[in-house]
Amino acid sequence: MTWSLFQLLLQASLMTIFVSAISICAGLAIAVVLSALRMSGNRLAYAGAGLFISFFRGVPLLVQLLLIFNLLPVIGITLPSLATAIIGLSLCTAAYQAENLRGGFEGVPIGLIESAEMAGFSRMQAFVYIRTPIALRLTFPALVNEAILILKSSSLVSVVGLVELTKMAQNLSASTYQPLPIFASAGLIYLVINLIVALAARRAEAALPGLPAK
Amino acid sequence: MRKHLLAALTGAALLVGTTLTAQAQDALERVMAAGTLKVGTETAFAPFDFIDAGKHTGLNTDIYAEIGKDMGVEIEWITLDWTGVLPGLEAGRFDVVAGPATITKERMQRYRFSSPIAEATVALLVGADSAVAAPSDIAGKPVGSGTGTAQLAQLQAYGATLDPAPTEYREYVSFNESYADLAAGRIEAVANSLPNIAFVASQRPEVFKVVTPAFGTPTYFGFPGRIEPEFSSLMDKIDEILLAMKADGRMAVLQEKWFGTTFDMPDYVTDPSI
Amino acid sequence: MSFDFAVILAKGPQILAGLGVTILIWVVGTALAVALGFVVATARRFGGPLVNAVLAVPVEVLRGTPFLVQIFLLYFGGPYIGLRLDPVTAGLLGLSVYGAAYYSEIFRAGYQSVPPGHVEAAECVGLSRGQTILFILLPEMALLVLPPSLNMSVILLKDTALLSLITVPEMTMTVSAIGSQQYAFVESIVVLALVYWGLVELANWLGRFTERKISKLSVT
């Protein structure tokens, strides 16, 4: 394990951080929309959101990526590797985050929603300004967990041609035939990234307003 | 559950649609008009394709550089995991695959292979201090190879002729894991094509060595391409350039560079031995 | 170009064997992970600050590194320090220890959600520590920990596919081997997608069923 090999791993980890960060944020936005659809009272919206969540949680991410990369060109949409990776990761994490949010939305005290309605909020306004912030606050630890899981699952995007940390480790061990030190180093880099995420989350959580009393 | 089944069936139907309708235009004309030949490959298959100091290199990049020069087009590399390479070829993501892959009867049903670029005959890689001196010494010992590969099939066929047979055939998702397990001491030998294991042994002589002679029946590596008629002009063109490279000595120079040796190869493999 | 499922389905018995291995490792691995995770969370809750701090280290390391890296180092690196495991043992050990780190965090959040007053009240009426956990804490946190636990078991199911790397003959390994023998890559991917989807739906159904049962119990 030389410094130049370690540098290559570090460079590749930037790709890991980049795709993961975008996917977490996009995934969260989609998850909120999915939750809204599920609670809209519209049967079709409910079923559609349910099918989306079922598919993206049920089918392995590797398969989803291959389908986006190789099936969409048939209907004329040829996405480059980076876009495929970000879309695949975002949709997959959106499904998991929507499941996490389900618990959060159920935890919003009914009284709060009722008082929002009495104060003249529309259903939409109550959803955007009252229920969503509280649900997000309630499920913040689960969101951090999901972020760490996505950082690690992002290793699968190499199947559509992106070279991130795990792929670089595989490439380097396939040309140097020294897999153990290389994989151990890659593991260390993942650990450092995730510890930073966890620490930042802890500070953010302390800074967030407290939970409403039950 | 029923709506899920329906969705799955729609997906499957869509897949069938892909394979039927994609690209009716002549592939060679399309490539020449675009000025780019797109080549798909994986980068964990030394010495054919691998990453050296962060750069994609190997025999394939050298051969395709010559093909691009002779055709007057740019080569665009699309590097994926091997799992994604052949689906990518079928989806029209690229025009041809580097790889290469062992030419077998079954695979020729599905893909058109180029003129062979290297010998793929199977030999054994063992630990540097192993007592295995000839292929038959693996009798009664655990051995390994890549899962679903032609090399594994050859190892099993050879093992069946030994008495006692090898105790176990371990199957690995890629040969790189089999080398790691050989180094860890779980298996006595790895069966893989001679060019690959010769390269492994040359990179880590303190850990690995090659057992000669090769034990498998003679087989060859070729570049897989599409089998449909609209691709035959492109594959013919690639064959023409590969044969010219063999005739004028460029291929021998490249083989010497990457394998440290040259191979005698037929111009075409029409009836593979496996 | 043919789209030929027959080549895959002809190997039905082989695929079923792989499916059996996947389910076995998933169920046993998840059960061990839940048990170990519960023990770790309980030790961190009641063992004092030192135990809590010491146990935090392996939990963070296991959660912070990819399962693929862990399993690779355990199986291929283990023999260098005298730990020579066979593939299925290494796979089960790796999966349950990895999962335990996540489950311990799920249970930790569960313990935190129970108001301290309830624990004090239980102690006042003379319940032992074990009785308090069993009759007060576990039932109170059950509804909260169930959804993330189910999510985690789904994640563990998909992680079993990574065990193909260390030659465990599970379903991904079996089906992709058939795919690469026959060069039927696309078909093998579709088959894998459908089978995993089915398994996940099954797990979801079981989870919702349990959730309903528990919420009925907590009302009465």
Quick gist of this model?
The complex is a heterotrimer of chains A (214), B (274) and C (220). With 274 residues, chain B is α/β, with parallel strands linked by helices.
General description of the model:
The complex is a heterotrimer of chains A (214), B (274) and C (220). Chain A contains nine helices and no strands. The longest helix of chain A is centred in the first third of the chain and has 37 residues, at 3-39. Helices cover 79% and strands 0% of the residues of chain A. Chain A has a domain at 18-162: Orthogonal Bundle (MetI-like fold). With 214 residues, chain A is mainly α. Chain A has helices spanning 3-39, 43-58, 61-71, 81-106, 110-118, 123-138, 140-153, 165-176, 179-207. Chain A is flat and about 70 Å long. Chain B has two domains: 25-119 and 220-259, Periplasmic binding protein-like II (D-Maltodextrin-Binding Protein, domain 2), CATH 3.40.190.10; 122-211, D-Maltodextrin-Binding Protein, domain 2 (3-Layer(aba) Sandwich), CATH 3.40.190.10. Chain B has ten helices and 16 strands. A five-stranded mixed beta sheet of chain B has the order 12-11-13-10-14. Chain B has a three-stranded parallel beta sheet with strand order 5-1-6. In chain B, a hairpin with a 3-residue loop joins strand 2 and strand 3 (49-52). In chain B, helix 2 (27-34) packs across helix 9 and helix 3 packs across helix 9 (232-247). The model of chain B is unreliable at 1-6 and 16-23 (pLDDT under 50). With 220 residues, chain C is mostly helical. Chain C has a domain at 19-170: MetI-like (MetI-like fold, Orthogonal Bundle). Chain C starts with 5 loop residues before the first helix and ends with a helix.
What general form of chain B does the structure show? elongated
What's the CATH architecture name of the largest domain in chain B?
Answer: 3-Layer(aba) Sandwich
Structural class of chain B: alpha/beta
**Arithmetic mean of pLDDT of chain C:** 89
Largest β-sheet summary of chain B: 5 strands, mixed
Output the CATH topology of the largest domain in chain B.
D-Maltodextrin-Binding Protein, domain 2
User: How far apart are the termini of chain B?
Assistant: 43 Å
Strand coverage percent of chain C: under 5%
Q: Class of the largest domain in chain B in CATH? A: Alpha Beta
CATH superfamily of the largest domain in chain B: Periplasmic binding protein-like II
Number of domains of chain B: 2
User: If classified by CATH, what would the architecture of the domain at 19-170 in chain C be?
Assistant: Orthogonal Bundle
CATH superfamily of the domain at 19-170 in chain C, by name, is MetI-like
Counting DSSP H or I runs of 4 or more residues, the number of helices of chain C is: 9
Count of DSSP strands of chain C: 0
Give, in spatial order, the strands making up the sheet with the most strands of chain B. Answer: 12-11-13-10-14
- Overall form of chain C: flat
Largest β sheet strand count, sense and barrel closure of chain C: none
Radius of gyration of chain C equals 21 Å
List low-confidence stretches of chain C.
none
Number of strands of chain B: 16
